[in-house]
Amino acid sequence: MLNWLFDTKKKEELDLSRIGIDIHSHIIPGIDDGVETIEESVAMAKKMQEYGYSRMFTTPHVMWDCYKNTPEIISTGLEDVRNAAKEAGLTIEINAAAEYFIDEHFIDLLTTGQELMTLPGNRLLVELPYSTPLMNTSETLFSIIERGYQPVLAHPERYTYFYSDPSVYKKLADQGCELQVNILSLSNHYGENVHKMAEWLLRNDLISYLGTDAHKIQHVELILKSNKNKWLTKYPFQNEKLINI
User: Fold this and answer.
1) 17-242 under CATH 2.40.160.30, yes or no
2) pTM for the full model?
């Protein structure tokens, strides 16, 4: 089973071993808008291993209007992916956290002390709405810190309502929030404006981590389009420091 994944093909010339760990993806099938089959999960993990990743955290959405994922649902799906990857002979270490949409459900989880699935170092991956800003973003991020977590804001370059005043990104970073840029934002995958904002954030040293945010095999394959981007080899992403935590 799954031996078809190892057909002989020309290996892509991409080495992300300097990054080492991916902290944002959606490879547990059937629980959010990520992959639909275990075969695609394994294909994505295989490609990530080929790119030089030694460890990855898949981060299913927890967004109560759409994806009512719990630690139990995520952990069960993780075991299925791990078992299939092991059967396919992969060596990449696969773990799970979650990508929490900041909504009323998240606030309830946070304030009542319920279990939250975190990245290494008690880091909590959170995302904001795409269309309209939250009225209390800073206060919410402070609440996360106050309760002992390190907030990591997913793909800040995609929140276009911040473009009119990009100084907000520095304010968030100064308040203790780490920022994670998507690797596909280093190309024009999400559009030219998102690409430009990603470059601006990198030029201003505001990004801590690089993530794939891969939802399907095509996303992993499209990473090759960012291969020539100078930031992949020059920017001091902090992913590597998380590998042994």
Assistant:
1) no
2) 0.93
